[in-house]
Design a protein that fits this description.
Length: 244
């Protein structure tokens, strides 16, 4: 992995991914909305930026050219199929060999085997109804985006994040294939570690064509149910699926 592209690089998750990617020595290109270019001033000399909406196929085509990996923030904004348009552009235009990694939330299910709490179901329902009513957020389009990814023959990883908090990195999150597994019960991860997991997914063969649901490695549920995967001498958690 030498050159990667971050689609949605100016957001909070995008900027954390940028930091982690540069720390690994990757050459980084990125796409962000023109009005957000200034958020990247700090890194201006170290990245190649392609201003544009993340579903703009002409911009995405230029940005992903020659990239071995593409990290995409799937954001369910507006009512113009932004997330599915973004995902489709990456699926169609990334190099054939590229590893493609997408972000979303626990509400996305790949095989229908996730078990959701009433609280999460209620929140997702409310965001769906209110978000569409005010025409600001379209979670159904994020679901459609992921359906297209799962149906593709791409080398993908869809990383499903839980509740997010800011703060210093605690290490690589622990993951499980299904929401509802006890290891995920704490439902909290640092945003920087969500980003760390996205970057890690570029090179971990165990995450190919998977939709890992993640939780912070230092949370109570991770410590209780995946002790072997948490906190090693190098300060990073060892990646692994939780016991079924
Ligand atoms: N927030 C949560 O609690 C949570 C929980 C679980 C999973 N996730 C997932 O984490 C990922 C990142 O979410 P985040 O909440 O941390 O946000 P974020 O990283 O700040 O990313 C938001 C992205 O949306 C773009 N954006 C903002 N307003 C927009 C608009 N009106 N039209 C088009 N694009 C717009 C931002 O670009 P600009 O820089 O141009 O504004 C940025 O690229 C998403 O995939 C989300 O599904 C979030």
């Amino acid at each position: 992995m030498k050159r990667i592209c971050i689609i949605g690089i100016s957001g909070k998750l995008g900027r954390y991914m940028l930091e982690h990617a540069l720390a690994r020595g990757y050459e980084v290109t990125g796409v962000c909305r023109p009005e957000s270019v200034g958020k990247l001033d700090k890194w201006r000399d170290r990245i190649t930026l392609y201003p544009g909406r993340t579903d703009d196929r002409a911009v995405v085509a230029k940005a992903v050219k020659g990239c071995d990996g593409v990290l995409t923030v799937l954001a369910p904004w507006g009512m113009s199929n932004y997330a599915s348009g973004t995902a489709q552009a990456v699926l169609d235009l990334a190099e054939p060999h590229a590893r493609v990694v997408f972000s979303c939330g626990w509400h996305i299910t790949r095989d229908g085997k996730d078990r959701y709490s009433w609280k999460l179901r209620t929140i997702v329902h409310l965001v769906n109804v209110i978000g569409r009513a005010v025409r600001v957020v379209d979670l159904k389009d994020q679901v459609e985006a992921c359906r297209r990814i799962f149906d593709s023959d791409r080398d993908y990883t869809v990383v499903r994040g839980c509740d997010l908090e800011e703060g210093e990195s605690e290490g690589l999150p622990v993951w499980s294939a299904h929401v509802g597994d006890p290891v995920l019960a704490s439902n909290l991860v640092r945003r920087t570690d969500f980003a760390l997991f996205m970057v890690h997914a570029l090179t971990d063969p165990a995450l190919s064509r998977q939709a890992p649901a993640i939780v912070g490695c230092n949370t109570e549920s991770a410590r209780t149910h995946a002790p072997d995967h948490v906190r090693h001498a190098d300060g990073l958690s060892r990646l692994g699926a939780a016991p079924a």
